[in-house]
Design brief:
The protein folds into two domains: 5-185 and 294-323, HUPs (Rossmann fold); 208-288, Orthogonal Bundle (Tyrosyl-Transfer RNA Synthetase), CATH 1.10.240. The chain has helices at 18-31, 43-46, 53-70, 87-96, 101-105, 108-116, 123-137, 151-168, 208-216, 237-245, 248-259, 265-291, 294-323, and strands at residues 5-10, 36-41, 78-81, 143-145, 176-178. The chain is globular and about 70 Å long. Helix content is 55%, strand content 7%. It binds adenosine-5'-tetraphosphate. Adenosine-5'-tetraphosphate is lined by residues 9-11, 13, 19-20, 23-24, 146-147, 149-150, 183-185, 193-197. Adenosine-5'-tetraphosphate (AQP) binds next to strand 1 and helix 1.
Length: 326
């Protein structure tokens, strides 16, 4: 018996990276065992910033390949592409009419993305979290596994659900976020959140030599200027990643030996690389195999969309009736 319904999504904006994997996808896989899980490739979110048409198509397929290779199993979860279920955008409009602009302007992601895309700040970018609220609530999902950066958007989703319920009668649950112990991975620059759209990511399907080069040049504890200086793993992004991929013994040793300068950053990175690749290589092999049968992937996505259309259609009907539409 499932403990409840889960919804989460990922944008097809580029190569899926360690942050997405550790902050969200690893958790998505585990949750399939106990929850009814709906996972979505959110292409309408991906077009809120400038994009290339052909790249978007390729990214949608690559996102599906990556998620399946990471262990999502269409027999035990629903995987689909957002735009195939138009009720997401229909519900967004209703929610727009309940959402003060000030709430949206205060969102940290909007402020950060507006800085990155100064020439191109669209309504879509501002409205991103309302669409996200509709993604979750169109399935009346109770839980949303996300990275720390998305917590503010889940809070907004709860506010939107509350506003709808107060105005039109009890309809939506107030969903809770589910965070992993490592819910924020910084980029290779050590300063900003690892992001697909920034040049600071390590893609989980990138070739081993590329991954090594990115790890080798990643920023660690910047106060450690020389090999003989002791380091501080507490402020080192790579130690955060060690705790995910390295054994408890390796992590404990690195924690100890970094503080006494017995181990240097290059050696530490080599250990991390080996442990990480032992984990990622089977995923990479599975992805290569999946790419050989694109028709099977498209068929899984189509089936997922059909299942979602049924739920979303019913919820939208209830929403229209309560809101006095038709
Ligand atoms: N650096 C991160 N650490 C932990 N979790 C992360 N997530 C993203 N980056 C990190 C989580 O991954 C899930 C999918 O993210 P998304 O594709 O919906 O959008 P995002 O958060 O905007 O991810 P990116 O990589 O930064 O994409 P772009 O650059 O296109 O905006 C979410 O659960 C997110 O929390």
């Amino acid at each position: 018996m499932a403990k409840g319904r889960i919804f989460s999504g990922i944008q097809p904006t580029g190569i899926i990276h360690l942050g997405n994997y550790v902050g969200a996808i690893q958790q998505w896989v585990k949750l399939m065992q106990n929850y009814e899980c709906i996972y979505c490739i959110v292409d309408y979110h991906a077009i809120t910033i400038e994009y290339e048409v052909t790249a978007l198509r390729d990214n949608i397929m690559e996102a599906a390949v990556t998620l399946l290779a990471c262990g999502l199993d269409p027999e035990h979860c629903t995987l689909f592409v957002q735009s195939r279920v138009p009720e997401h955008t229909e519900l967004t409009w209703i929610f727009n009419c309940l959402s003060p602009i000030g709430d949206l302007e205060r969102m940290t992601q909007f402020k950060e993305k507006s800085q990155q895309h100064r020439e191109d700040i669209t309504m879509g970018l501002l409205d991103y979290p309302v669409l996200q609220a509709a993604d979750i609530l169109i399935y009346k999902a109770g839980f949303v596994p996300v990275g720390e950066d998305q917590v503010q958007h889940i809070e907004l989703t709860r506010r939107i659900a509350r506003r709808f319920n107060n105005r039109f009668g009890e309809t939506f649950p107030e969903p809770q976020e589910i965070l992993t112990p490592t819910s924020r991975i910084m980029g290779t620059d050590g300063k900003t959140k690892m992001s697909k759209s920034l040049n600071n990511y390590i893609g989980i399907l990138e070739p081993p030599d590329v991954i090594w080069e990115k790890l080798r040049t990643s920023v660690t504890d910047e106060n450690r200027k020389r090999r003989s200086d002791p380091g501080n793993p507490d402020i080192c992004n790579l130690f955060t990643i060690h705790k995910v991929f390295s054994s408890a013994d390796d992590s404990a040793r690195i924690n100890r030996e970094c503080r006494t300068a017995e181990i240097g950053c290059v050696e530490c990175k080599k250990i991390l690389y080996n442990n990480m690749m032992a984990h990622l290589q089977p995923i990479q092999q599975k992805a290569n195999k999946l790419r050989e049968t694109p028709a099977a992937i498209i068929s899984a996505l189509n089936e997922g969309a059909e299942r979602c259309k049924k739920i979303a259609g019913q919820v939208m009907q209830e929403v229209r009736e309560k809101a006095g539409i038709r």
